[in-house]
Write a structure and sequence with these properties.
about 210 residues; alpha+beta
Length: about 210
């Protein structure tokens, strides 16, 4: 009887050891999170260009604002990166490669307006090709419709035409015209300063 008991105990031990060795350790493999592509808009990579017009032949006069203030803005698409950017532009940063002209623009145009040390605004994208810049100038806030394109290398161009009457800036324009009447006279002997200004914003969307 004692031998049977010992034999049964040995068999049970072998069986238990065998079952234990058959167990497979469970392993959990974590899949690394996929990195989301980011598009980042920064002020140092952005230029605001403007083109005004004089004479009846609509001779262009172009320049830039050398200072543009806004916080870097990111998104998972170009449309998201552009959407919601709030900016300000000091009018003193206007630059047309002619210091006399720049002085006249500040004195006879911007300084005639109300509260226009800064041009302020917010950019809102409405589609993959269209946007609206809501701009405050001369104490007036109005929308400037823009269209934009994005190249494969992340370069963006936004274009629109500002009608100065929408910001009640025609009195300021008349003051500027009076100061520049001779220079704005064309071959036909007529002096003209146009009420529209073309706006072109060039920027580059960096990777985050």
């Amino acid at each position: 009887m004692k031998k049977v008991t010992i034999l049964m105990a040995a068999f049970a031990l072998v069986f238990a050891t065998s079952c234990k060795s058959d167990k497979k350790e469970s392993t959990i493999t974590e899949t690394p999170a996929e990195k989301t592509e980011q598009f980042v808009l920064k002020p140092e990579g952005t230029t605001v260009n403007w083109t005004a017009y004089k004479t009846t032949a609509k001779t262009p006069v172009s320049g830039v604002f050398t200072t543009l203030n806004f916080e870097p803005h990111a998104g998972e698409s170009p449309q998201e990166a552009l959407n919601g950017v709030t900016f300000s532009i000091p009018v003193s940063s206007i630059f047309s490669k002619d210091s006399i002209r720049d002085g006249k623009l500040q004195k006879f145009f911007f300084n005639v307006m109300a509260d226009t040390d800064l041009l302020k605004g917010t950019l809102k994208t409405t589609s993959a090709t269209e946007a609206i810049a809501t701009i405050t100038m001369n104490g007036e806030t109005n929308d400037l419709p823009l269209t934009y394109t994005v190249t494969e290398d992340r370069r963006v161009s936004l274009t629109g035409v500002m009608q100065l009457k929408d910001w009640k800036a025609l009195d300021a324009l008349a003051t500027l015209h009076e100061a520049c009447e001779v220079l704005h006279t064309g071959a036909d002997g007529v002096s003209k300063t146009w009420e529209e200004v073309a706006i072109n914003i060039d920027t580059y969307l960096r990777e985050n």
